[in-house]
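Design review, sub-item: ligand-bound model
Attendees: FS, YL, KQ
YL presented the inputs for the adenosine monophosphate complex:
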Amino acid sequence: MHTLILSSNEEDIKKAALIIKNGGIVAMPTETVYGLAADALNGDAVKKIFAAKGRPADNPLIVHISDISQIYPLVREFPKKAQLLAEKFWPGPLTVILPKSDIIPDEVSAGLDTVAIRFPSHKTAQKLISLSSPLAAPSANLSGSPSPTALRHVCDDMNGRIDAIIDGGDCDVGVESTVITLASDVPRLLRPGGVTAEQISGVIGKTEIDKAVTNPLADGERVSSPGMKYKHYSPKAEVILLDGTDKDFYEFVNRPTDRNIVVLCYEEDKEKIILPCISIGKKHDYGEQAHKLFSALRKADENGFSVVYARCPEKTGVGLAVYNRMIRAAGFNIISLGSVNQQ
Ligand code: AMP
Ligand code: MG
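KQ shared the predicted structure:
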């Protein structure tokens, strides 16, 4: 299949909208990561997303809207807490899960009786939705690999597999949206993102954080969000998270080695590390780390490294989203440095 590269001007967005209306699939920029979009109400078009990504059919998709009023036909209820979150954080990087209406195809919800909805703030995404339909759109990467935050990442994974890609430059936030379910008794954060847990509980009060955000699933454990089952966001290189103080970290990564290692570190660490480094930003700038993380993981592969040593991020604010992605990229392979360095 030939993949058309489009720009973000009105004429090209109209071309993309036509492709979508005809049942095709188009990668679009959003403020979080690039999404791979199809008409959310066309089950056959949505199937093409799963095929292009190699995504397991039991992992549901987020439906993107361009106006709050578009939510009403998609859900059975729009409860007060969801309305409050929508007023405060939409358009923006927050996805809410609600009981789905009958017009949502099973392909989108993967057979669940709920649907995930988001109103992105990116102008190109908004325009494309308003010219076509609510769009089902997961991240525009091959399933399991780091999400795309730049046009070239999408091209690397999707060229020849999809109808078109709209170039929107680099994505601002850099990690996928925060996902919260309001289909349970107490609201529960299923995936951390650009809108933080602290911001959400500031608006709707008590909010749980699902155990799977920071922990691996036990064998056979039931999962609230199917996406949490899978190893995710991983480059080809093996990723190992290193948890410890600055001193422990420098001591560990500066040990002699004959492996082909790159270190994902903070800006402040660079001059203290002998191995090649890729900075993901300043130590306490979690927004910058989120913005750079996926691109840094892809860079490790582009430069042919076989192992990535990554500093374990802090878990507050947007840092929790960085931690959640990194620990999955590492397949929960984490070394506690305090004890190791004494060996
Ligand atoms: P992606 O679009 O690839 O960034 O992934 C969307 C995330 O939202 C995945 O982790 C899905 O499993 C999750 N998700 C989407 N719809 C639902 C739903 N109805 N219930 C629970 N999780 C969902
Ligand atoms: Mg994804």
